[in-house]
Amino acid sequence: MPEKIALGRYVFERLNQLGVNTVFGLPGDFNLALLDHIDEVDGVRWAGNANELNASYAADGYARVKGLACLITTFGVGELSAANGIAGSYAEHVPVIHIVGVPTVKATKDKLLLHHTLGDGRFDVYKKMFAQITERAVTIEDIRTAPRVFDEMFRTAYVTKRPVYIALPSNFIEEKVPADLLQDKIDLTLTPNDPQAEEEAVEEIEKMTAAAKNPIILVDACALRNEVQDLVAKLADETQFPIFATPMGKSGISEDHPRFGGIYVGVLSKPDVKEAVESADLYQERY
Questions:
Q1: 131: part of which helix (H) or strand (E)?
Q2: Distance of alpha carbon 81 from its chain centroid, rounded?
Q3: Do the beta carbons of residue 1 and residue 179 sit within 8 Å?
Q4: Which CATH number is associated with domain 4-183?
Q5: How far apart are alpha carbons 240 and 217 in whole angstroms?
Q6: Where are the domains of the chain?
Q7: Tens digits of per-residue pLDDT, 113-150?
Q8: Chain centroid, CA 161 distance in Å
Q9: 4-183 and 195-286 agree in CATH topology
Q10: 3-state secondary structure at position 4
Q11: Rounded to whole angstroms, how far apart are CA atoms 109 and 105?
Q12: How confident is the model at residue 162 (pLDDT cuts 50, 70, 90)?
């Protein structure tokens, strides 16, 4: 590999390292140069979709299976078409990396009257929209820090299990960055909690558990997103608490587990399940 590579290639090399081998989306004028770099990376392929909404749902499904996904759209009309899918990924804790090809830094600074804009010079209006339905939304502003920003955003999506939004000005795509940065692996481990705070939390939980007369465990959807089914089962084994699941948490605990009590669906629950869950004086929700 050469000493320096285009930022566009860097992005796909990193995705390949993270196991993202299929990239979803639609080509558009502001992301075409970025898509040209996909063929430079062995193991990464482009999956073009009929529209951005379909692409966002495809990326959502891919992330649920693989643990991380990438969606590429163009500025304005393209990204807005993907908004519903990204919002769904946010609500369901699904890690989708949404990369948007946007106009050049100069065009944005000069507030040029370009297609896909609202014609009022507000080039950041779409990013502000996505900031409400993503864990974090950023714009690449400096080629010197661009690789670090991409790495941080990829990690954020993976660790938080939520989508992120990266606006990539088209003038940066062919700019060169050091290839040896790819040798530094992205740390995907969770940041350790403060030991003192963790100790205090454990003590409080132990007090609440000791005082409870009818504790239960309720498994919800994000036990699946975070792939902690084994920990859920271990919690049930250790505590011997009855364990129930919501419809979205189904399969978060095996229904063959000896402590499994059923699926809780509020007023639609079986009478014995409804009574058990709603009469609990302490419940631990496993997300």
A1: helix 125-131
A2: 18
A3: yes
A4: 3.40.50.970
A5: 10
A6: 4-183, 195-286
A7: 788 888 888 889 999 999 999 999 999 999 999 999 99
A8: 4
A9: yes
A10: strand
A11: 6
A12: very high
